[in-house]
Write a structure and sequence with these properties.
Order of helices and strands: HHHHH
Structural class: mainly alpha
Shape: globular
Radius of gyration: 15 Å
Distance between the termini: 50 Å
Helix content: over 70%
Number of helices: 5
């Protein structure tokens, strides 16, 4: 907590780790490197676990959408759908254009993916 600048205001360690995990995910999705993808998945999963014990529902839902996007990117639509459902559950009653956009985008991508017979 001491490493977080005061001007950021009130970030809990779990929230800081989630932001770092989301940044690692952006790197992984950009590079496509297997090591980066595995690291991002691990970081996001730990961040979800950390945030589950806080009152940071928006941060939790956003982290879950990033985890869903990562699974979708790596060809695992079942896990992507699971994390999307979890994000929707935590997004109830939240007002966030960024979260709404992520949820809509993921729904569209999951619905538009080819089926197993394609």
């Amino acid at each position: 907590p001491d490493a977080v600048p005061a001007w950021l205001g009130g970030w809990q360690p779990a929230h800081t780790r989630a932001v770092c995990a989301q940044a690692a995910t952006t790197l992984a999705l950009t590079t496509g490197d297997d090591h980066h993808l595995a690291d991002a998945c691990d970081r996001l999963t730990r961040a979800v676990d950390d945030l589950a014990t806080t009152s940071r529902h928006r941060a939790l839902a956003l982290t879950q959408t990033r985890l869903a996007a990562l699974h979708l990117h790596t060809g695992d639509p079942d896990h992507a759908a699971h994390w999307l459902q979890q994000a929707q559950t935590h997004a109830t009653d939240l007002r966030s254009a960024r979260l709404d956009h992520a949820l809509t985008t993921l729904h569209t991508r999951l619905e538009g993916r080819p089926g197993p017979d394609a």
